[in-house]
Batch of 4 targets.
Target 1
Amino acid sequence: METVQNRKQGVAVCVEILVSAIFFVGGFAFVYRNFGFHAASVLSLILALPLAAAVRLCSRWPAVRGREFAFLGILFCAAGGGSIFVVRAMYTDGLDQRYAEDLRWAEFERRLRRDPSFCDVQVHLSELKNIHWASGEFDSEADLARLYSLATDCGIKERRLDGPFVHSVTLTVRRQPGK
């Protein structure tokens, strides 16, 4: 009788470890896709706690009490609820949109670096407000039009290329000698 119960508890611990590992990987993948690696790694710390506790129980297997299974279940529920609360707060704060904006500007900067006519154009990020803008000079009005087209292709609105200050003009065309 005791051996059958121990087997059932052993299967229960294995199932809890498997479920925890699935939630850990699935949660990491979901958060990484929407919020980036940093947010996913922080959230994985919340989800790793019940996984570590379940592995610890499995290593002490025959000497595990029923009360420890109850605590493990509570820990699973608390970690799951906590991670849902954190992800919901991240959506409320707009971190998913900020991450998408960072990706658009990173793609824009990669494309700028590939084109030699934009070698003097830099992409900036303000420290406090998380505002991106481009500054620099290029040779012709056609380059300016190509820059706006490139920004539009990357999902950046044309007016967002200017700096955060209304009085500053950050993208200029060089004066040609003799004009």
Note: The two ends are 98 Å apart (CA to CA).
Target 2
Amino acid sequence: MGFTQLDFYPSIAGPFLQKLAHKVFIEGYSMNRIIGRLLVEEITLGRNTAVAVMDESHGWAWFLTSDAHGRPLGIPYSIQCTSCGCLKGIKIQRHSDFDLSAYCRSCRYMKKIQVPQNNFYTREALDGRDGWGIQVLWGDLLDRFPNGKEAICVTDWEDEMKAAKLVAKLAQKEVKGIEGAEDMDISSASG
């Protein structure tokens, strides 16, 4: 286990590590099942760093997702506008699940937030609520989180959007084809 932030303060991890040791060694929880819940409880640690857990089969970095705490979809974002320097002027706007932008209320500067391809999220995190996600460093990609919740990533979402557009186009062509057939029937009946 490790922490991913370069300027990490070890004292921040004390309460988290104490709770983790108690849950794993005393209560018998699996580390993979409990880390996400503990990160949501430890907002200070979750706002500062992700927690990397690695073994021979996979490498995962667990991270907090919270719009309120400056980590939309787990991406650390400054509360200071990079354009005008205004403090606490940044507002995160969600256009869809993976389409986010940071908007400054003072100077109206807007910047698109890039979501990493190998991050997986819970539905709560995508809806803007506090949650957690997993970045796959190596190993198999996720279908489900260790607690059984569905794991959703950008590529899954993009594939669903492409499929939905294709279905809509096919339905539109089918409707046009039916309308064309009706026109043919009408013209052939009059002749």
Note: Residues 76-114 form one domain.
Target 3
Amino acid sequence: MCSLAVTDATRIINPRAVCFVSARTSFVFFTTSLCFAEALGVLKSKHFKRRRPDHIGKEPYFTAADELRAYVADGGRIKLVDVGISDSAVFTEVEEIARRYSL
């Protein structure tokens, strides 16, 4: 459901969004704070669940988390947008989109 994915130990990558965070572009990528938290959760899972095939060690975990945080810092390439997910109308709309596109 979220547009931000963490698939490598120290880089934030999503084939659909990588151009937005590339240093070679001037685009800004917008995502929700929920997606940002989900990306941090993926990093945490990759670090603490040692049986994962994509497990990452302590230093790559902290490096990737810091890099992600830097992307959303003031002036960063990723801007967090509050979408009011606790609003039932917003939640219903998100759920309908997720079902429609099998997300």
Note: The two ends are 5 Å apart (CA to CA).
Target 4
Amino acid sequence: MSLLLPPASSALRSLFDVAQLAALASPAGRAQLSTLPQARTSAAAFMAAEPSARSVQSLVLRANGDLALMRFGPRGGKSVLWNFGRL
């Protein structure tokens, strides 16, 4: 298993910690990853509590086994910022 990281010059690198990503990608750390429905619910709850929040970024374990960095908007929109590949 090797994860595809954004280039070092990319602004996406500031949205996650590479060491934390490696720990979450390990078999023991995968249990801590959110699924898409869990991440969407968590993002909605955070934005309801913080009205000034414009978006929430989260590492998400997708149904197909891919690890993705996703952005959730205040009205329920979602987008994949980066797909790290299959775990």
Note: The beta strands are 34-35, 56-61, 66-72, 78-86.
